[in-house]
Amino acid sequence: MLTKSEGEFAVCLARRAIEGCIKNGIKTRPDNLPGVFSESRGVFVTLNKEKNLKELRGCIGRPYPVMPLGEAIIVSAINAARDDPRFYPVKPEEIDDLIIEVTVLTALKLINARPEDLPENIVIGRDGLMVSEGLRQGLLLPQVAVEHGFDSTEFLCQTCMKAGLMPDAWLNGVQVYSFKGQIFEEIEPGGEIMERVL
Fold first, then answer.
1. Are residues 134 and 158 in the same domain?
2. How many domains does the chain have?
3. Are residues 99 and 131 in the same domain?
4. Counting C-beta atoms within 10 Å of the first and last residue's C-beta, which end of the chain has fewer, N or C?
5. How buried is 35 (Cβ within 10 angstroms: 0-12 exposed, 13-18 middle, 19+ buried)?
6. What are the AMMECR1 domain coordinates in residue numbering (predicted)?
């Protein structure tokens, strides 16, 4: 778990990376970061439009701990701003209207249960999900189920669709993983940062 100050640092690092890339064309370097940021962790960076009550503007991350957290935040923040295929790249004039959210993930854990028992092994507000079948993967962060009012069955269906599978694919032997996420977000663009409890 990150401390409050480490969480604040994570969000500030994401904002600095986006501003450096979009406004100045430079990549922030992950140098001289606090200790936890050299540990490999999974992380996602989410951008929401401030003026439109959390309208998604970009979300990209790394589910697996394949790089140090500091570097993963920088790369994910830039990717969320420029490379999310669902949106046009963020323009420099938009940055001051964006709320930045960083979710640090625990390791993914395969849910060992019969397909029909999967829903009762998922806790809404605690678990995020990843579904995997062959080369197809889909991941939804824990906050997605809360924000959209999903129950555990709908959460499974939506995660399957994110993977490009049929909604009921979870009943047919796909691998379902759960994880937890620690969420830090700005209250207003560039403003105070808080840990979000679902």
1. yes
2. 2
3. no
4. N
5. exposed
6. 5-195
